[in-house]
Amino acid sequence: MRTPIVRLQTLAIRNIKNVEDGEIQMPFALNKEMTYDKAEILGIYGQNGSGKTAVVDTIHFLQMLLCGKSIDKSWSDYIDSRKDTAQIQAVFTVFCENAVYDVTYSVVISRDGEMVKISEESLASATITSDKRTNKTTFLSFQTGESEAFTPKKRYDEIIKQVPNATINLIVAKRIAEKSRCSYIFGENSREIFLSCDETGRARWDYAIIISALFTFAVKDLFVIRNTHSGYITANIALPMAFRIDEENSGIKGDFAVSLREPTLIDLNKLEVLNKIIADINTVLFTIIPGMNILVKDLGVQTLEDGQEGHRVELLAQHYDLPAIPIRMESEGIIKIVSILNAMIQLFANPSICLVIDEMDSGIFEYMFGELLSIAAKSAKGQLIFTSHNLRPLEMLNKDSIVFSTANPQKRYIHMKNVKNTNNLRDVYIRSITLGGQNEKLYEETDSLKIARAFRKAGRRIANG
Question: At what angle do helices 332-347 and 227-234 cross, to 10 degrees?
């Protein structure tokens, strides 16, 4: 194990969107397994408006915080309109060479006029070795308005004693974090202090390993594909491809967007990246869509605004030996598969990858959707979290890999009880919706007669002008 491996275990959400209180657990956490050598898949199911997308949005916010990025003004829209604060608590397992760390990161965000600020933040950990486990203790805690840079004082004194100019630098880092509305623990200025090395080049404190591992996880290994990603495809605007390319001493990760309406103008470096992305996608695509490959068509050189040489490119789809056509002519489902395929490939390569996809089933053939998840469950190495309305995965995945949103905003997510591995979870779910039998109500009932009457009433109003 050359670098630490990070796995998300649980995620608790409070007062975000319509979730007053909810917690999801990954299968290993549910079964108290301490391992990273196989795939973990968690599908989130429930009726519209029951908090599925809130999980995806929360993980996106969490990624921004762990990357040390500023929180956006729009975050205020995600805090429950009846509340002033929201809380995210994430538990991770960090697997290192000689120890395993059970880590809890907690953050409270609150409204600040029209903006949002981080009002509380903490990081706690327990260390697990071959012969013992320590108690989980908080090693960094931060609150706005306090005079101290952070607590506990013991940690603060350690840094002041060993790091030159730390007293001033920590105060400056705190003020910068408050002004830029970013995490104090993971913000660039304070992170540099927490990760500082001694004269031999070694990290001064054990918690530096944890901060570095979580930061690297958020930057390199966590993919969050939200509805906005699919929206560009549905609107036929662009094809955003989530990707990661690893090279010997560096790598890049992000979304590579190619226009679906006109050729895309890119420089030579981006053209090289695009060719690598498409080469990886083609390795798998022809097995999912038989005989299909993606081609990068170079339509010629055009000078960029900075005077450099650029290339006008277009993506084409080719089936077997038939003439290639612009990829925008393909179905939304095929374009959706292409958009997530490089990230899916990463899931099979790296146990630290966590891929989160909202409405993963959108546009994808039901049988193929189930097969993709079944293959991932058997052969992938990382973690996959997805939301869906397609019930096919309930027949393909283990019951521990499915969580259901409920009609109770104070307990939004549950695993189904009284389900044996021999049961068809899809049938159990439908039966529970109609007949009950679970600890929480899974469906806010609708009245088909009232719906029909409302449609007829609206129809008459239109017909009568």
Answer: 150
